[in-house]
Design a protein that fits this description.
Order of helices and strands of chain A: HHHEHEHEHEHHHEEEEEEEHHHE
Radius of gyration of chain A: 20 Å
Strand order of the largest sheet of chain A: 11-10-9-8-4-7-6-5-12
Shape of chain A: globular
Oligomer: homotetramer
Low-confidence stretches of chain A: none
Mean pLDDT of chain A: 96
């Protein structure tokens, strides 16, 4: 699913053309697969190394690389691309360890290159409206942030099936030490910080495996402490039979609260302490600028979806490349690194009997 | 809004390239506007006539025309394109009269050309699931179909504003004799027939104008009789302050009913006579083939939107062009003509004191 | 269901005691049935006549009669009770003809007696809030009112079953000339007028029977014209398989609209022309007085139901009896008569080929 | 609110009469207040002691006592009533300590007296359907239970207001050591165990105070371990501005999951691993017996509320008294004691740095 998503998102606004790629490590298959997705002849490469080398020689060589490979390869590919002077847009989790992420962050800093991490839910107009409302004080000081992220995909024991065997996600060597934290936990962590407008400084985590025999985590309950002192929790599960990529975000403030659910992602409910609830909707008048900009169909009742959210990141990535200034809403290398440090802290908390554990916020 | 929608929908699956166009009737402005939307140099024309003539001379000339101009020009442009051997995809309403539509239908028949009318709501996966469930007898024989289509866009008296003056929709000479019927009524009419799997053979209409001084209809209540004997009604209003392009479809059958709402378009509720309601969702297993094919993100909980619905029509248009066989789900020239004959019948019913009036179903 | 509902509603606020009744026409069975529902010994009568006569002799005789018998007996029982100086609370439809209703209305007027018709949906707090918002101009002048009332109870052909044979509702001689209009249409008619704050002066009706062989109507589409000039429609069906006593009310106004649904009856949505929708909720602060008074659990999130709506009518009935002044929100004899005149007009419209037909608003 | 609720719930099914009470500690005011709520003359007492003594002398003395006083008095009143041979129905939390609860449990056991704790949410038909579905294996073995309970009532700093000063709930001496756990946590704890069909054997708790200067907890996140090994968590907050007594219950099972929300309490959603979601509704056919019995309006679309849930407990209390056998769905003294032991364990976990702490399940 993720390949076509990247392609369509990149192309949606006409800010990118897809001119080269590594569709297979076998040269013959790479050529055929490249043709199938419309790559120009001779620009479907069997390896990143080959692509970077060849493209560097072309006057019209690639300027940016989109990384959508298994997690354990993110660091090497992103690092090589950055070193070759390319901009990088990379799937989450940014890497498979905090050290790797910190290394990427160091390479980006001062390089003039842009690194964007694809947290597409942060591209939804109503998530941006939530962030803007919090920033504007619409619910007063934030007291707590609660995020649920539940998926059904690993509810059955897919490990035993031929398809399951191919699922690199279930192999900690490829996906990182905790699947649930890398796969959906980093999304939830980013959403919580993005909307609260503050980083998470400490966590207290319970990590578990609901499906017997599984070698990685599919369940996590993580208590949060934000830099502002606000509390919170993430409820994460990938073995939640029947739950459809369910994401629910709630921000409790002094004078009101916000509720958003993925299943109705074009709505945002503000519940004040007194008086009627207010339902904000994508496309309506009187939205915050950043929510308005995130909509392509500028009227309510004209549904958009994940593609447009994803494309918003690509548009911001293009903006950052062309202007040299990344929009503050674009998930960048620091956001990606904080996601990995969050995983590090959660693993350490679980190992220590669920004690509060600090999250690193900046490179050493 | 409609121009970018067509462009993105056409490009989404890589089945079309946009290589020529008529972005303005002023040659200089046409060139500039064409460049802005990425047309190759020299292929931004100041008129359809010029485009058809010039492109006919090119070996790589255009094969299909997308018509998204004011309604009164649809017939002339589509007819010219068909006569020039092009395929046509045209905004609804197909024309501004039944006669014009019938003329287009005659030109298409036997020509080997494809004409598709953009009823994008019929491209939603759950609308296709509804059609498939009805066809499979999941709710027994259809007793009645109820459609609401309400919009807020003309709730205020926009006629007096400079922007309103530019709104050709409010001018019956340009938009056709009844705005509400052409603009949203044809969508509702098509949805009702599409899901019921049967044409509407007679209507009884009340047409009205809620906003004082308006020269066209913004309100309609239309009673329906289907060829199967089933009853129904359309509730249409474009002056419904605060209603966000609200569409609700209900099919009442002998043994159950279906409910679908635009605001939750990726769900479809089947309420059986007895036992729990069943909620079908885009991307779930066990969907009808035509609903499954209409989804690009093949898992529940990954929202798609109007763009993908629109793109489904473009994909079917491409399919019809390349195979010579239009998918049965593609709204074609006959569907477009029936939409216009529905308008004719509704106008006649209103004029006759709301009497039942037959809808033509085939050309004379 | 209706007997226990009346009993509980009457008792809920301690304003009534149930001290006599006619539970059966067989004296022995009446006594036994009376004991079962707690009637004092000797006050379970075999007929209304007997009850009125006996109770009139007691110093502690009944003061009010609740009529919950088949429709064709309402007039006789209510008339007898009024003539005996009792107050009457009567199920809808008030009678089985406009003439009967008019007769009751005449008996009530000037008698000092109170007659209340049980339209319990009008007792819901959020219906009262809707009425108050309309009256306060919150959505500007009303343009149209749309009500759906759909039930599943007669979707199957129950006539052939032993239980069905007992269903007096299906017998026009007992239930009145049009089941769907009497049973649910009068509720919808009252709701529309109650919230709009204006009577319906003309209707244009399509009445039908969806279930083959049925001797009465189970389907109606009724176009409305209010005294204010506002339009509207009622969609009524009792053969809507799977629809659970579904009622939806929408009021379209110049500057906004209201939406209410029975399935979420403690919420009311106000959609303004611009800006966020507002969700009013039972129990919240800042409600209209009449909505606040209609709640017994004065905080949001503490669900109430139909019983409390029904009990609100009993409370207003008590208020009217004790103070001599009926609250304006209590459905009275005139409301009941207008419901019957609405049925008369709808039947005449259907007979005349769906022409606009005036509804009587006052007795001759 | 709680006084009228108890009265109405007790009376709803005619199983109880309210014949004596302690409406005030001042004899004159007790008499007046008793008259206002309809107590017979001479049976409005100024103290429990007086009432128990006087009523014991009457041949028609009270048989049961309903306790709805501040928490710190529950133990003394319930113990005195039990010792006097009365049955007791008592508000939650049962007492203000595990020791007190254990003492009551010992007094009940073997006494032939019934003690019921009012957890009215457990009286809702769809909560009972959830319990029945879990027990029947409809979602396979339970993996995790997630409950949210959020209220807005203490979001503002009410302590400083005159009204706040009267709120005994905010005084730990009167309400118990942790308001959030006693007031709403015991409800959530009971719901989780009730639906899962298994007790909670260990907790790991974070208890907090969101409103500055507050002397008791208004926030809790409690991780759960059930006797079956299932995991879970409770999210509790009474300072959640704008959240309307929000309760959400989710049960994740091996083959599906259940979702229930207080704001739509007459629905229950079962999401299977594959295929359409199923929506169970109060009043529909094919419900579990215990869900069917919990509905008074035995058809869908006829809303009931908290009163009926509360009344279901009174009905079970009556059943237990008259038959000597408490229905398994009635929250009894052991349930009440487990609620208190849960609080004890949560407090100990918080004190120990959030370590897993065992909950007592039986008296020593």
């Amino acid at each position: 699913m993720i390949g076509p998503m990247h392609r369509r998102a990149a192309l949606l606004d006409g800010r990118f053309a897809i001119v080269a790629g590594v569709p297979s490590s076998d040269p013959a298959r790479a050529e055929a697969a490249g043709a199938a997705i419309g790559l120009p002849e001779g620009r479907a490469y069997p390896s990143i190394t080959a692509m970077l080398a060849e493209e560097a020689r072309r006057p019209d060589g690639i300027e940016a690389l989109a990384v959508m490979t298994p997690n354990d390869s993110h660091h090497a590919f992103a690092a090589a691309a950055l070193d070759a002077g390319l901009h990088v847009i990379c799937d989450k989790p940014l890497t498979v360890s905090g050290e790797q992420a910190e290394d990427l962050l160091r390479r980006v800093r001062g390089s003039g290159r842009v690194l964007c991490v694809t947290h597409p839910y942060a591209g939804y107009p109503m998530i941006r409206q939530a962030r803007a409302l919090v920033a504007a004080g619409a619910i007063g000081a934030v007291r707590a942030v609660q995020v649920e992220y539940l998926g059904s995909g690993l509810a059955a024991r897919v490990e035993d099936t031929p398809e399951g065997a191919r699922r690199w996600r279930l192999d900690p060597a490829k996906a990182g030490p905790s699947l649930v934290l890398g796969d959906i936990g980093t999304h939830a962590h980013h959403l919580a910080c993005f909307v609260a407008g503050a980083p998470i400084v400490a966590v207290r985590a319970e990590l578990g495996t609901l499906v017997p025999g599984r070698r990685t985590h599919d369940y996590a309950e993580v208590a949060l402490r934000f830099q502002t002192g606000a509390r919170g929790r993430l409820s994460l599960c990938q073995a939640a039979a029947g739950q459809d990529n369910h994401i629910a975000l709630r921000v409790l403030g002094e004078t009101g609260s916000l509720d958003w659910r993925h299943s109705a992602h074009e709505q945002l409910v503000l519940s004040p302490l007194s008086g009627p609830k207010q339902v904000f909707a994508k496309g309506m008048a009187e939205l915050a600028r950043e929510a308005e900009d995130a909509a392509r169909l500028g009227r309510t009742g004209h549904p958009e979806g994940l593609l447009e959210g994803f494309a918003n990141l690509y548009r911001e990535f293009a903006e950052a490349i062309t202007t040299g200034i990344a929009p503050s809403t674009m998930p960048d290398a620091l956001d990606g690194a904080r996601g990995m440090w969050f995983i590090d802290a959660a693993l350490q908390s679980e190992a220590s009997g669920h004690a509060w554990t600090e999250c690193r916020l900046q490179p050493v």
